[in-house]
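Handoff note, outgoing to incoming analyst
You'll be picking up this chain. Sequence as last confirmed:
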Amino acid sequence: MKKILIIDDDPQFADMLNFQLGRLGFEVETTHTPIQTEEYFDNRNFDLVVLDVFFPNRNDGLDLLRKIKQNIQTDHIPIILVTSQPSELFMQEPNFDEYLQMAKEFVSKIDGPKVIAEKVGEILSSK
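Most recent structure output, in case you need it:
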């Protein structure tokens, strides 16, 4: 069974995505802060991470993305970036190209948990 980690500060969204991923047969763990997440990687292995881009401290998600990709034990894990911003707005972020080089995919939360869950399935089926 493939194991997914959701990192999102919105518990309601994380629960909905957890439900959709569970329906597709994935094992899912959820954390709501980047600080908690670093501890998760110490003793668990994940096949994919769904990472919220913006936390209350605006850059936390992007800082965590960099840390995951700079760590030899986690750099191979595909990451899907999600944000509540419309895609067009996020694409205007100053470092958007850098983030897409590190992430496998970008999906707006506006598209909904079902679409994000389908992207997870697509990425893991091609892995």
